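Students often ask why inverse folding is considered easier than folding. One informal answer: many sequences map to the same fold, so there is more than one right answer. In these notes we will look at a single instance of the problem. The structure comes first.
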């Protein structure tokens, strides 16, 4: 009985953990003479009510493992610790914030680990014990990624994580790790945009074919220091058990990117750019017919099933001619430009070596 009572007491103590009195985030900024770097697109969120609200969007963090991206002066870090996280790993690139984070680590013994590094290169697959892993087909692991992302890194970072989801690498070796992140409002709207909406984009399709993506709430720009020119959206991602397009990530990305480069025109215009000029018309027609997609639809009108059919059709053509996947219309344009510059109008010989490796 006494063992049971001790266990209950220890559990209650853990559940009731709160950080001891500490200097406010604002006081730490003054203490360490911290300033938001414009070139790093840093904006501090000092209102702990708002950081608490962001953390609540992740769900219960009781006894959870958490990776926080770019903690900066530590406002969001405090909210995560107060929410009951058992193990918080923060990855911070800016050396100036490390002393303040160490102060938080001392106030929460055994709960906060600090990595001085770049989240774009950090091996999150090595950051947590394998024992927390869950089967992909089961419930998500008790692991969360949370971050108030600098605008400059948010898009490349979410694309990197989406590729990780597709390949079940990085933070997704543990299972369907959930993400709660902030983005410039326009980017948040693109991530969550539905078919035919004005904000529908490449990012919408890439995120939604792999995840359930939900917009949680908007933080007014005036809440940040310094105040950005735009508001900020909080977005929550839960990876799907089964992706809606079952082809390699790079292939999906190539098709979607090409289709959306002419977002105001009919979708066949973007599809055309997947193929060399010599066989462009024929292969575009074959791909669209195989996919059973109306060539006069605008890119924003295409649903995920439309894109699934297009990518499957493109994969079939690439299987027939593997060189197609490596074709980039920009290379063909550059080769033509070089050819025009290096040969005078009187030349009778045209060097086609630059385009000799093209398929078709």
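Output (designed amino acids):
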């Amino acid at each position: 009985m006494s063992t049971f009572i001790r266990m209950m007491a220890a559990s209650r103590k853990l559940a009731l953990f709160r950080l001891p009195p500490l200097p406010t985030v604002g006081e730490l900024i003054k203490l360490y003479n911290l300033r938001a770097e414009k070139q790093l697109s840093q904006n501090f969120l000092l209102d702990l009510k708002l950081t608490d609200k962001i953390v609540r969007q992740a769900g219960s963090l009781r006894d959870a493992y958490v990776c926080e991206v770019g903690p900066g002066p530590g406002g969001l870090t405090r909210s995560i610790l107060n929410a009951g996280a058992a193990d918080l790993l923060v990855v911070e690139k800016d050396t100036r914030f490390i002393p303040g984070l160490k102060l938080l680590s001392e106030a929460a013994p055994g709960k906060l680990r600090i990595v001085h590094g770049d989240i774009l290169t950090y091996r999150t697959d090595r950051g947590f014990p394998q024992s927390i892993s869950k089967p992909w087909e089961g419930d998500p692991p008790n692991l969360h990624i949370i971050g108030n992302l600098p605008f400059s890194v948010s898009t490349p970072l979410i694309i990197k994580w989406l590729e990780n989801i597709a390949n079940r690498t990085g933070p997704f070796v543990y299972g369907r790790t959930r993400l709660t992140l902030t983005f410039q409002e326009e980017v948040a709207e693109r991530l969550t945009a539905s078919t035919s909406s004005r904000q529908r984009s490449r990012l919408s399709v890439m995120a939604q074919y792999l995840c359930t993506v939900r917009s949680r709430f908007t933080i007014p720009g005036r809440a940040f220091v310094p105040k950005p020119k735009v508001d900020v959206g909080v977005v929550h991602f839960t990876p799907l058990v089964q992706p809606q397009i079952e082809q390699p990530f790079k292939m999906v990305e190539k098709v979607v990117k090409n289709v959306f480069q002419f977002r105001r025109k009919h979708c066949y215009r973007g599809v055309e750019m997947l193929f060399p000029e010599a066989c462009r018309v024929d292969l575009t027609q074959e791909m669209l017919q195989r996919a059973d997609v109306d060539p006069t639809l605008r890119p924003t009108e295409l649903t995920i099933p439309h894109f699934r059919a297009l990518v499957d059709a493109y994969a079939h053509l690439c299987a027939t001619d593997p060189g197609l996947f490596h074709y980039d219309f920009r290379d063909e344009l550059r080769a033509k430009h070089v050819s025009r510059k290096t040969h005078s109008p009187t030349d009778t010989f045209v060097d086609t070596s630059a385009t000799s490796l093209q398929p078709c």
